[in-house]
Amino acid sequence: MWVELIFGLVIYRLVRRFFYDDEEHIDFGSTGSNALFAVAERLQALYGGKAYVGLRIPDPDTASRQNIDLVLVTKGEVVVVSVINASGIVSIDGDGTWVCTGGSKHKTERLQDPMVEAKRQAAVLESYLEQRGVALPDGYLSCKIVCPNPNFRTIHPDYFPPEVVTYEQWTELKPERKSISGWIKGALRGDKKEMQESVQNLGFILSTAPMWDRVELKNNMHLLGEFLEFKGKQDDILSLRNIKRSKVSRMIIQKTSMFGLAHSKLQVLYTPRDYRSEGASGAEWNEVTVRSSTEVLFQLQDPAKVKKIKLSSIINMSLSP
Question: Where are the alpha helices (DSSP H) in the chain?
Answer without folding.
Answer: 2-19, 33-47, 114-131, 167-172, 192-207, 234-239
